[in-house]
Specification:
Rossmann fold; seven-stranded mixed sheet; Metallo-beta-lactamase, Chain A; 2 domains; alpha/beta
Length: 393
């Protein structure tokens, strides 16, 4: 399927309706995804990125229906991760001498993945490539957004920013443009993508956006590598990224817990009720992390000004589900958020101190030693949870 983006620029990617897990099993994709590849046909024919490896043969066959592959003058690789570069071996087998333009780090990534010595041409920020008819591609390195090899490129005259992973989302839709899809669904997937993938690089996001803005270039379209193409007010997603990269939080408190015989669950519910009694304006969300999608939970952590994490004590430690979500949280390096642990126990009670230690290591401001109660909380202990919730609020 070929879709016109603007003038002589077309989308030639793949919509993956069935995708439900990504990055192995690390990221949930409830709405599927797209792998966006772009074809520029000016005096020069330019291909920007490809698609994920499982669709390589289909992609190359579809592309051959549109053009003679030997007419491709330049292949641009904005990012070497296999969801973008996976069809390169299939493509380059047909045009082995075609020049590939990418960053120095991308050469390392591509050769590391495919072990091929193709015709690599290294570019850096400010370098240009003539597309013909008065148009140029301008390259901008996007180091660690979200890989060391990442870059974007900008097509002059048409004012299209091919942003790769930045500003994208995992969202399959037949209508590939932001003005044609459900806005609420779209931004739900956008914030989930940012929270789970780009949060650790927030300072770099701010810096890179400032760098691009300082160039003073008009941007009419942001053509991402996943999800929709931003053509209606494309800067709206840039404005969101500026907000999200600035220690983002909403008026929300989120409780994450696991439970064995419902003691810790009852604590979570009572603490939440105490928070609500003290402040009925704050949004409160509860997640049993052994039953909830971890990426959806992470998105709610990203929105929160404070989180509470609860686990029963198991073998002098915490549950596997709580340990797993804390590992995710530590890696994402959230900033400007408070936290505390809680949990029930039978005879030793180490879980709360271990949770607090993990939260401190993850950069949260742990407000106190937390709350731990024995066995299944009785009425007096439930009142303790209510009072703890009020104190939290």
């Amino acid at each position: 399927m070929k879709v016109n983006v603007k003038n002589n620029v077309s989308w030639v990617g793949k919509i993956d309706w069935e995708l439900r897990k990504f990055h192995g099993n690390e990221y949930s994709t409830h709405k599927g995804s797209t792998y966006n590849s772009y074809l520029i046909m000016e005096e020069k024919t330019v291909l920007i990125d490809t698609v994920w490896k499982p669709f390589a043969k289909e992609y190359a066959a579809n592309l051959e229906k549109e053009i003679d592959l030997t007419d491709i003058d330049y292949v641009i690789v904005n990012h070497a991760e296999i969801d973008h570069s996976g069809a390169l071996p299939e493509l380059m087998a047909k045009i082995p001498d075609a020049p590939i333009y990418c960053t120095k780090k991308a050469v390392e990534s591509i050769t590391g993945h495919y072990h091929k010595d193709w015709n690599f041409n290294v570019v850096k920020t400010g370098d240009t490539l003539d597309a013909g008819n008065g148009k140029k591609l301008v390259f901008v390195e996007m180091n660690m957004l979200h890989w060391p090899d990442s870059m974007a490129c900008y097509l002059t005259e048409d004012n299209i920013l091919f942003s790769n992973d930045a500003f994208g989302q995992h969202y399959a839709h037949k209508h590939l443009f932001n003005d044609l899809v459900d806005k609420e669904e779209l931004f739900t997937e956008c914030i989930k993508y940012y929270a789970n993938i780009l949060t650790p690089f927030s300072k770099l996001v701010s810096k890179k956006i400032e760098e691009v803005q300082s160039l003073g270039i008009p941007i009419d379209i942001i053509a991402t590598s996943h999800g929709v193409i931003w053509r209606e007010n494309p800067m709206q997603i840039v404005e969101k990224y500026i907000q999200w990269s600035n220690d983002y939080q909403e008026n929300q408190i989120t409780l994450l817990y696991d439970t064995m015989w419902d003691g810790t669950k009852r604590m979570a519910e009572a603490i939440a009720e105490g928070i609500h009694k003290a402040d009925d304006k704050v949004r409160i969300k509860l997640f049993n992390v052994s039953k909830s999608d971890k990426n959806d939970v992470i998105t709610e952590v990203f929105k929160s000004k404070m989180i509470l994490v609860g686990s029963p004590t198991i073998n002098k430690g915490i549950s596997v589900a709580v340990a797993g979500i804390l590992e995710e949280i530590e890696g994402l390096r959230f900033r400007n958020k408070k936290a505390v642990g809680f949990g029930s126990y039978g005879w030793s009670g180490e879980s709360v101190s271990k949770i607090n230690k993990r939260l401190e290591d993850a950069g949260f401001a742990v407000i106190n030693e937390g709350l731990k109660l024995t066995w299944n909380p009785n009425e007096e202990q439930i009142n303790q949870c209510l009072e703890f919730g009020k104190m939290i609020a």
